[in-house]
Design goal:
alpha+beta
Amino acid sequence: MSNLIERVVVDSECIEDATYATQLNRLVLTYKNGGVYEYNKVPAFYWHGLFNARSKGKFINNHIIGQWTYKKVS
């Protein structure tokens, strides 16, 4: 099984885009200030929620930030 990576451009004042590695359940958020954060063990349910959310920024603030372990990668 290959690791499918999906990407969505986020309409947000702070976040540039988001990518999700399906096999690893890893969400990577790229912020407009250049910071890149990797969130681990994020279930696909939340990726699909982000992908379908009307406000991606609000979804990220309500369901991702502070909910999952992360590390800054750049």
